[in-house]
Amino acid sequence: MAQSVPPGDIATQPNAKIVFNAPYDDKHTYHIKVINSSARRIGYGIKTTNMKRLGVDPPCGVLDPKEAVLLAVSCDAFAFGQEDTNNDRITIEFDSF
To answer: Following DSSP, what letter does each residue of 48-79 receive, concatenated?
Structure first.
């Protein structure tokens, strides 16, 4: 049986979270830098809890060791107070290969 090798590490800038501030009647775009800080090649994919409101470009890709990519994270306009945004999340999933 083949042994599983844990994926390398990634770093993000900003490293914790991004917050979309008012006004919410316009689309906002912020950028996240994802850095492959490991010595192995990784593949990444982005998941979101609200695909209608939150978008990421590029949504997936491959990073060589020490390579970085700038992701454009956008929040479409919405009616504040009429939609629940408390659980809106973006997750970066990745694995080495």
So the answer is: ES-TTTEEEES-EEEE-TT-EEEEEEEE----
Token pair for 75: 């929040």
The residues that bridge with 38 in the sheet, in sequence order, are: none
pLDDT in tens, 3-56: 555 667 899 999 988 999 888 999 999 999 999 999 999 999 999 999 999 999
Buried b (16+ CB within 10 A) or exposed e, 7-37: bbebeeeeeeeeebeeebeeeeeeebebebe
Phi, psi of 50 (to 5 degrees): -145, 85
